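REVIEWER CHECKLIST
Item 1: Sequence provided? yes
Item 2: Single chain? yes
Item 3: Sequence as submitted:
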Amino acid sequence: MKELKEAALITATTLGAAVVAKIALPDETPVEKTVHVEKTPNERLMEAAIMGDIKAYEQALADSGNINYQDPNTGKTVLMATIDNNSSIMEQGRACEIVKMSLATGNVDLTLKDSQGKTLKDYIKSTKSTLDNMASSYVTPQTYATGRAAESLSKDWESVLQTIEKMQPTAQAKKTNYHAFYQAMNLRK
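Item 4: Structure as written out by the authors:
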């Protein structure tokens, strides 16, 4: 049996837009090489949304980022990830602004589900419920401001839910029309 003498140890670390790889052959000093990897518009869009960076989000959209892009591991859309990864009231305020801005484009697919079967609407309802609980539990003078901020943000999310309610029949109608068209095309064959 031939012994493997040329085995290499390779490790890689992602640092922003760069990947640092360390390669070490047996009995040799490791060599480090940095390679710059450009992120796709969808990756930049997802990152900007999660970070609550509205200007970077707008730029990524302008660079052909897809609002309906889904993370291949979790199935979360950009907007789901935005809501899910921002926990403080200030971060949730930015997430709410990003969701509102995105809904205003009319390009958000409200029927998409993550790997657990949750839709954007489910994420918003969950966040709103958490904020409602926060608003009712902060009753001391020291926590009053936090409770009022949570209450105000809960109202913002409620307006987003109302917008979605108005949009959903349109999204469902488009889906139904597509299926009717597809069926009609199959019947003609």
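Item 5: Key structural point noted by reviewer: The longest strand covers residues 9-15.
Item 6: Recommendation: ____
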